[in-house]
Amino acid sequence: MTEAEVEAKKAQESLQDRLGQVVELLHRHKLVEGLTQRQEGHHQDRVEQLVHRQHLVELQAKLDELHPADVAHLLEALPLEDRLMVWQLVKAERDGDILLEVSDAVRETLIADMDDQELLAAAREMDADALADLAAELPRDMVHELMEGLDAQQRERLRSALSYEEDQVGALMDFAMVTIREDVSLEVVLRYLRRLKELPGHTDKLFVVDYDGVLKGVLPIKRLLVSDPDKTVAQIMAIDPVLFHPDEDAYEAAQAFERYNLVSAPVVDKNGKLIGRLTIDEIVDLIREESESEVLNMAGLREEEDIFASVWKSVRNRWFWLAVNLMTAFVASRVIGLFDDTISELVALAALMPIVAGIGGNSGNQTITMIVRAMALDQLTTGKGNTLRLLRKELSVALINGLVWGGVIGVVAAVLYDSLGLGLVMVSAMTLNLLLAALMGVLIPMTLARLGRDPAMGASVMITAVTDSGGFFIFLGLASLCLM
Amino acid sequence: MTEAEVEAKKAQESLQDRLGQVVELLHRHKLVEGLTQRQEGHHQDRVEQLVHRQHLVELQAKLDELHPADVAHLLEALPLEDRLMVWQLVKAERDGDILLEVSDAVRETLIADMDDQELLAAAREMDADALADLAAELPRDMVHELMEGLDAQQRERLRSALSYEEDQVGALMDFAMVTIREDVSLEVVLRYLRRLKELPGHTDKLFVVDYDGVLKGVLPIKRLLVSDPDKTVAQIMAIDPVLFHPDEDAYEAAQAFERYNLVSAPVVDKNGKLIGRLTIDEIVDLIREESESEVLNMAGLREEEDIFASVWKSVRNRWFWLAVNLMTAFVASRVIGLFDDTISELVALAALMPIVAGIGGNSGNQTITMIVRAMALDQLTTGKGNTLRLLRKELSVALINGLVWGGVIGVVAAVLYDSLGLGLVMVSAMTLNLLLAALMGVLIPMTLARLGRDPAMGASVMITAVTDSGGFFIFLGLASLCLM
């Protein structure tokens, strides 16, 4: 083979590898066969052929058959190079739908790959509420250009959606509402609906408004279908629906959706005027994001990370908590430094001290996690009665755990180092550090909440800092008092 | 005052306190005023009176006005004593609905407070799918008694629902389906619906079945409403809906609900026969539970804990991870023990070693959390290509972080202890431990997944164990090689 032939073969193999991976993913997620799995055999053959022929055109045809959410998921699961290859194959008119489905981190990589022309074309197809979701990641003058292309109502909606914080109801609402008047008969409503080409997704209720657009009630589709068509809307509508205001906290709205099993709900302004609606699909996304950010925060990641992100991006996403950790570890190290003399006299202390600190951290994290969760679910008020009650309980748990586990490790230490005194110091230090962990595990989130701060953010780092430094201090301090 | 009077006064004050707390909660959660807040002023006065009069009867009336989910939430937010007081005030016929809404931990406390008669009465009001949710916590012979009280179809349904694992679709489905035939016109469907008194919650589609009960398609209500009533069901139904099998993984069903924005979906058996349906409200609960158990596992709690649980219950919920932690800490302690001589020669090592171990743990947890999440969302296959790619990336991130943060702390250590050698050992040990953390952060979840295990469970504990023992070994090992 000539060198050129070798090169060509390599390029072909690499393409085959990449296509193979795409197809493996399609298989794995049952996207090719469809969720019904009915035509599995039939499709599978086609896909294998596709790999062998390396027919990009066929892959493109496959992609066209997929739901935008499936394409989005496929893109998220592909390394950058392959992701952009697939992205190029997607038909331009589907770009917008798919951009709305992918995660923020992946969306960034896709947008970076599009030129202004493509981006504008994709954005032009979107509703005001979809545009609002995307606007943060578009160039500023493109947003202006897009705004000018909208009609007055859409522009107003986009502007209002952009004026709310990410965690407010206003940023989550959409504008796809079907409104009716209260004085018409259900028969008329049914005829009106039939004249519409289609109903917006998640339409489980129609919104009843007066001539000024003020919400008078809602007409659940369920009731519309089972009621006598001669009745009027006013007779069967629900007049006291669960409703939201645009500046309300989105997480509280999510709790209401969960609690009352809602599918959609109206959003009204201060004067009771209907301005939008919330739907369960946005709420589900919100719940998922909320729990993700909780997990990520606990692990010390600032935000969701594209698993195939560049090294540099990962470093940026992770440096903050590493730096915080470094500082707290340094403080703990200085605490140990105070007891240099004690340690050099009894070097066993150096080996035992991480146990005291570690168990304290673990136990403190148990307490603080439970309390932060209860607060997030609004199950815990910060009243004095509750604080005292929780303190009593957590201190009792800590006392039992300290005596039991401290006792176990104390006996081991006493036997191992042949020193009863060391064993006793170990038990006492463990118990005291667990008590400290319980105390701070209750007081830190309660205090943060009373100061109006978010108790979740950094609570775990704070408790670990306390139990590390505290654990070293208690253990080494007791040792120098009792054993020296 | 006589002693009896003092006692009476105390009892009264305690009751007042407790009622006050209940009312505070009612206020806080806007339950009293209703979410619309329209009649706030009016209601508020009433509630204050209620506290002063300590009128249990009025509190009872208030409770009767609340949605069962709100009562459930109130019960969850009350300490045991108050919780049982409120529980006694709830009308017996609402017991069942409320039991279904509370968390498992709180449900246990409520059931423990009911006698068999009350429990039976509450359970008799329930559907088969609701009973199935509750059955695990009822006495076994009561379940038998309840089964005998059901008609044949309900009994069969209950038996089948009980035969599935908690995380299977079969355990989540309900049986409230509206089925129609494909050969009738939409006009007939509309008339049929009107004859039903009401439609089940979350009915966004009707299920089209043949005479054997085999699913032929679904008729979305949206389409029913906008289509010509003279058309037949077969003409406008969707023939390839997203559907599930009862033995499928419920979490995968949840992902499909999220991805395709579903409100309800049919569940069919192997022969395509319709046996139940899934609805978004159950899916939302599942997503919430999934994310909760993830957070709780990370913090070392075995399951959701009633915040007002008894000390003994809390101890049981927490002992397992504490014991695991104790063992890994003990291993790390033995590693340090290997270097007794080195430490007694250079006691600064004892103060610096926790920094190396701590940063390694933090960094390893960042890596492993990201990978476990990507796996849970099916974004990451365990193929060799992906493992290598991730290893390359994570090792690069670790190298950068090690050199940067290791460099910072190395300089500090060199200055503090006036020893260039110590600084260099610090930098090298930090870098090596971060590389170890990255390596294990990728390999542990990938290996667990390839062995068919759940990578989430205990991953964080394993990585911390590795970075602790590894960090101590690397740092003290390097120190004894280079500085002694």
UniProtKB/TrEMBL annotation, chains A, B:
Subcellular location, record wording: Cell membrane; Membrane
PROSITE patterns per the UniProt record, alphabetical: CBS
Entry GO terms, CC: plasma membrane
Chain ranges of the CBS domain: 237-293
Keywords of this entry: CBS domain, Cell membrane, Magnesium, Membrane, Metal-binding, Transmembrane, Transmembrane helix, Transport
GO molecular function, one term: metal ion binding
Protein's membrane topology: Multi-pass membrane protein
Keyword Transport included in the entry's annotation: yes
Membrane-spanning residues: 319-339, 351-376, 397-417, 423-444, 456-481
Keyword Ribonucleoprotein: no
CDD domains linked to this entry: CBS_pair_Mg_transporter
SUBUNIT field: Homodimer.
Family: Belongs to the SLC41A transporter family.
Protein purpose: Acts as a magnesium transporter.
Protein name, entry field: Magnesium transporter MgtE
Organism: Azomonas agilis
Organism phylogeny: Bacteria, Pseudomonadati, Pseudomonadota, Gammaproteobacteria, Pseudomonadales
